[in-house]
# Entry
Amino acid sequence: MIMELQQSISIADKLKILTDAAKYDVACTSSGTQRSNDGTGIGSCAQAGICHSFSADGRCISLLKILFTNECIYDCKYCINRRSNDVPRASFTPDEICTLTMEFYRRNYIEGLFLSSGVLKSPDYTMDLIYAALYKLRTTYRFQGYIHVKAIPGTSQELLERLGFLADRMSVNLELPTAEGLRLLAPHKTRERILAPMRLVQNRMEENRQEIQLYRNAQRFVPAGQSTQMIIGATPETDFQIIHVAEALYKKFGLKRVFYSAFVHVNEDASLPARTGEGPPLLREHRLYQADFLLRYYQFQAGELLTEENPNFNIFLDPKCNWALRNLDVFPVEVNTARYELLLRVPGIGYKSAGRIVKARRYGKLDFGDLKKMGVVLKRALYFLTCSGKMMYPVKIEEDYITRNLLNVKERLPEGAGGMTFRQLSLFDDVRFGSAAEGGVI
# Structure
């Protein structure tokens, strides 16, 4: 039994091993530092297993991010925890998961739990232990905080359903964008085994919504929805292929988020891309997140952003600006009369500022000063907008001219792409971004 195997390892040592093993899961970001309270301020920062994310109301919250075990029966070539790697191994017990969660919560380090796992013995064996931990946490300890659990493909339907009534969010990692990539790098996994639990969660969520309409006190099943994760750069798929896969997942499975994880070279294997010294493809990950926002919030279709002839995103311009430059016949847009759907396509206008424009223009004509107050990023929008038939400055509606001027704005790119900083997007599918954040996406 797992309890017998782990008696010689202290819970602190397990925490160190299993938080480090969880750092490659990009569903949330880690604090990465330890800083105690010196008595002059409020709060503290704990290194082990604390990740920061955002709730639906915009609050920054902290989650305990750990693996239940880094033991694994699979030998995925890209994974640090694969069976053939010689790394320190550890497994928590259900009681230890409860103890850690409650003790971290009582110290005000966390507000919730993010629990993933390797595969110990079998998917059902591992998920049964995770279920025991969550059940005890919810019933014995009465923990009502946020819980996100990673479901293991191959787990029985009955067990997944029981878990879904304990967790707020459930996710099943797609791992790689295509079935061919899985066969190459994760031969123990198949696309069918991965998609089956996604479909189960989707169907059960719909049934649960109907149950809640009939019985208000009905227990909620995965109320925060499901998400998934793809590794980017380990296999040769183009951005065109990846964004089409993401679009299909949103449409067919009703996912809340697709996460993109830049491939990190942690193993040596002939099937993996050769080391180049350039590090993970963070700029590519960044562009995919921007395109993902366009799919989810800006009513774009994947086929509008890329084509088979032009299958990868522009390294210098974000996907929305790139689309606008390829469709200059649509512009300039008159801000006082344009449809909401067209305003969303103007670089510099986010979905929040587009909504503000539509509401405000009912009461009078808008000018560029009004747009600035509403959060419109005029340094981008001025090339594509008119107010009462006039542009902000005399500009040419020419691709080369606008491109040169947009590049002079110097968009903030990931580290390694101009030396700028990079921020991983949030775990949650939240409408929380203000105008400052909109500038990086819109």
Notes: Residues 54 and 428 are 6 Å apart (CA to CA).
